[in-house]
Amino acid sequence: MPTLAANATRMPRSGIRAVMDVAWTIPDVIGLHVGEPSFVTPDHVLDGARLALDRHETRYVPNAGILPLREAIAAKVATHNGITASPGQVVVSAGGMQALYLALAASVSRGDEVLVPDPGWPNFAMAVQLLQARPVRYPLRPENGFQPDPADLDRLVTARTRAMIVNSPSNPLGTVLTPAHAEALCRFADAYDLWLISDECYDAITFDVPHVSPAAWDEAGRVLSCFSFSKTYAMTGMRVGYLVAPPKVAAVTSIMQEPLLSCVNAPAQRAALAALSGGGDFVELMRRTYQERRDKAAALLDEAGIGYHLPHGAFYLWLDVRDRCGGDVTDWALRLLNAEHVAVAPGTAFGPAGAGWARVCLATKDAALLEGLRRLVEFRD
Ligand SMILES: Cc1ncc(COP(=O)(O)O)c(C=O)c1O
Question: Fewer CB within 10 A of the terminal residue: the chain, N end or C end?
Fold first, then answer.
């Protein structure tokens, strides 16, 4: 048998899988470990796809996506994100993940280094590795409110650093970049001539602060902004996201879509267009529901004296279990799962800085979320 590519076989398995594998075997498990919205996809979004199917819109469409969707996205980022972009600067992707992959594949080469958040979504490091580049983790510390510290970034930059990934609102932390941090990151990228890849998959889900897009401070055409329909419209399986990039990058990444997937499937793009054309109420209802769940969960944890980082966006709660887990947080999560039938994501799945922490998903319905937290609070082994 020929050998497999080393960068593929060296890919680490997601640290959440250890919990998932066991959770699947427990029929009455309370699953607080995965990030799937508890809402069903709204009807107006489904209608968009249905109409496309009825009209037999089942053929190839442009690599960068159908024009009406790119126009609607350009209008959306202008009003919601403060980003001025033409439809030609929008590339429709298969979910936010593929927008990220496009951004990385267009900007980094073999052996380059990419700054990734720690803790951060594991897919960042995995994608960098698949491209034969090297993820370099930058710490997000509780004492800084989990915001990036410029001193850390300066220390980690080398001659090989080509890009930095920033994620706001953050999975798993729920932190939201402040305008000052967003601007500082752009100036940091200017100082070292880096690409700034901004993952804004949860841009519609912030609680008591506004979402800010680093591209609004981009003076040099170096910010590649990645968005998704998955969480905003509870349509994770439809697989539609988008990259908004400077014209040259958008042109290159449109061409890259050809060998990667040719184009995103047309009915899913019509569903995304329908999502943007209506449904403001749905997004607000969902956002408010997550905020209410956050507040109920926080009240329960306050009463129990368990530490956590109060999220201002996304739908995760970052729990401090350093004094409970006895060292290895994955082992602790497995013991919790086996004893109490509650699944949480171990913090180390998001990088070494997650040691002693666990991620709880607030997208779970209220009753299950609160019962799961109650059992977690009472769990002592
Ligand atoms: C931080 C972050 N970015 C991007 C994504 C990509 O989502 P999708 O590919 O479904 O759009 C996710 C999904 O969980 C995420 O948590």
Answer: N
Q: For a pocket test of ligand 1, which of 20, 226, 231 has the largest count of ligand atoms closer than 8 A to its C-beta?
A: 231
Residues 36 and 50 grouped into a single domain: no
Encode burial over 311-344: b for 16+ CB neighbours within 10 A, e otherwise: bbbbbbbbbbbeebbeeebbebbbebbeebbbbb
- For the stretch 139-168, pLDDT in tens is 999 999 999 998 999 999 999 999 999 999
Cα of 55 vs centre of ligand 1, distance in Å, is 30
pLDDT for 306: 95
Residue 380 has pLDDT above 90, yes or no: no
Question: Does residue 28 sit in helix, strand or coil?
Answer: coil
- State if residue 96 touches ligand 1 by the CB under 6 angstroms criterion: yes
pLDDT beyond 80 at 280: no
Is 251 part of a structural domain of the chain?
yes
Atom of ligand 1 nearest to the CA of 100: 4
Nearest-atom number in ligand 1 for the CA of 236 is: 10
Residue 1 within any structural domain of the chain: no
For 257, the domain range is 43-277
Q: How far is the CA of 323 from the centre of ligand 1 (A)?
A: 30
335-370: per-residue pLDDT in tens? 999 999 999 999 999 999 999 999 999 998 999 999
Cα–Cα nearest to 200, from 236, 164, 224, 233: 224
Q: Give the Å distance between the CA of 369 and the centre of ligand 1.
A: 21
Given a cut of 90, whether residue 316 has pLDDT beyond it is yes
Sign of the CA dihedral 88, 219, 199, 280?
A: negative
How far is ligand 1, taken at its centre, from the CA of residue 2, in Å?
33
Tell which atom from ligand 1 comes closest to the C-alpha of 171: 1
Return the residue matching tokens 């739908």.
315
pLDDT at 54: 98
Does ligand 1 come within 6 angstroms of the Cβ of 35? yes
Q: For ligand 1, what atom is nearest to the CA of residue 97?
A: 9
Pair (26, 48) in one structural domain: no
Whether 379 shows a pLDDT value over 80: the answer reads: yes
What's the total number of domains in the chain?
A: 2
Whole-number Å distance between alpha carbons of 381 and 379: 7
Same domain as 260, residue 308: no
Ligand 1 pocket test: pick from 226, 230, 240, 269 the residue with the most ligand atoms within 8 Å of its Cβ. 230
Nearest to 272 by CA among 116, 96, 135: 96
pLDDT, residue 13, reads 83
